[in-house]
Design brief:
The structure is a homodimer of 200-residue chains. The first copy, chain A, has 200 residues and is mostly helical. In chain A, 68% of the residues lie in helices and 4% in strands. A two-stranded antiparallel ribbon of chain A has the order 1-2. In chain A, helix 5 packs across helix 9 and helix 6 packs across helix 7. The radius of gyration of chain A is 21 Å and the shape is elongated. Chains A and B meet through helix 3, helix 5, helix 7, helix 8 and helix 9 of A and helix 3, helix 5, helix 7, helix 8 and helix 9 of B. Chain A binds a DNA duplex (30 and 30 nucleotides) through helix 2.
Chain lengths: 200, 200
DNA sequence: ACTAGTGGATAGTTACGCTATCCATGACTG
DNA sequence: CAGTCATGGATAGCGTAACTATCCACTAGT
């Protein structure tokens, strides 16, 4: 398995210890068999840590959600959100309300404890702290763009038919999507600024 | 300064040692004066580490770019991109070409060593490794959305008039923007899935 | 038969981001 | 103006996270 994925053997052992990988079936006391599923899972772990920068513990939670019997899209998404976001500062009531007003205006239903809502509020708070009050004016444009992204995401997810695939697709799509969007944003910035300013 | 920002004194000393903060002007051998600029800088450091998850070393590079005399937007952006992205795996020639073909089709000029290009290629490589080949079909939708985001970003940046503000605005906008977009994406996903599937 | 490799357990390592302690000195408090 | 407290500066220490190394008994392949 190490040879097939490039992950060092001691690292695989470590993941086994941490419960990220289930032990293979023992054919004898010191010999186990690992199949395609294990290899796939191992690659997923590396993707989550490398691209998504999730901690080992966070990866464990996400994988745990994937393996739970009551496989609900909602549940897996929730765990993902919690894993990705850093639970952050309270404070700045004004920014808080500003963020909620924004969500209400959009008509996006929200639960104040939703990790994504909290993440958004944190960003607004930080922006104000930094004296970049006008940053929030960007949010409408960002939200418009994210609407389009979300439509594409849903299209993508719903194309899959098997439940397991859907859930893994959500996890992979969330992580890789965030990374891809960040990269594309910078490339688009370069393209737009080149067009507008004639810069290189 | 510690009292005004909530950052513990030893931490501030640590940042001073690491060169993230310039020493205040000494009024006497053991008494220094720190002004508004220092406080602002300190808040920026915390924002970059907390929201942007940059390492202390990466923050140092970004701040260094901000402070350089030849203040070019391009330069600061480049440093930001390098700081944000993890320099990652080579390999998978097919994915590499697929990503470049994508960029060419978009008409976005690119330099293969651009960190953002490399980040994008990495994502495509990872997607293929994970067996999610259809993930790349999403990229067009993402790129469309990012076009809109980039237009808004440029509008925002160009509204500022003073050079220093522009550069700090770019840094802040990049970090906070990425975080905001990720959060909005999840909220949009919830809204879209609620509309389409009637889920909660 | 024998070398290389395995599962399992335990201990050690490295990097990072702080924290703690010490010192001599200066600033505010009564 | 004595006494407490905080400061700049330097050095050393701590806690966590993610591995990595070593050991052991054993076994698969040659």
């Amino acid at each position: 398995m190490s040879r097939r994925t490039g992950v060092p053997v001691p690292t695989i052992k470590y993941y086994l210890r941490e419960g990220l990988l289930s032990p293979g079936e023992l054919t004898s006391p010191n010999q186990a068999r690992y199949g395609e599923a294990h290899v796939r899972r191992l690659k997923l772990i590396r993707a989550l840590t490398d691209v998504g920068k999730l901690s080992i513990a966070a990866v464990g939670e996400v994988l745990g959600a994937l393996d739970e019997p009551e496989q609900s899209l909602h549940h897996v998404l929730g765990v993902m959100q919690r894993s990705v976001s850093t639970n952050a500062a309270a404070g700045d009531e004004a920014a808080h309300q500003e963020a909620e007003k924004f969500l209400a205006r959009r008509g996006w239903h929200y639960h104040p404890d939703d990790p994504s809502v909290r993440a958004l509020v944190d960003v607004v708070v930080k922006a104000r702290e930094l004296g970049h009050d006008r940053f929030v004016e960007q949010l409408d444009a960002y939200a418009d763009a994210c609407q389009g992204i979300a439509e594409a995401d849903l299209d993508h997810v719903l194309r899959r038919t098997e439940v397991e695939d859907v859930l893994e697709g959500v996890v992979v799509g969330t992580m890789l999507g965030d990374a891809a969007i960040a990269a594309l944003r910078r490339l688009a910035q370069q393209a737009v600024s080149a067009r507008r300013l004639g810069e290189v």
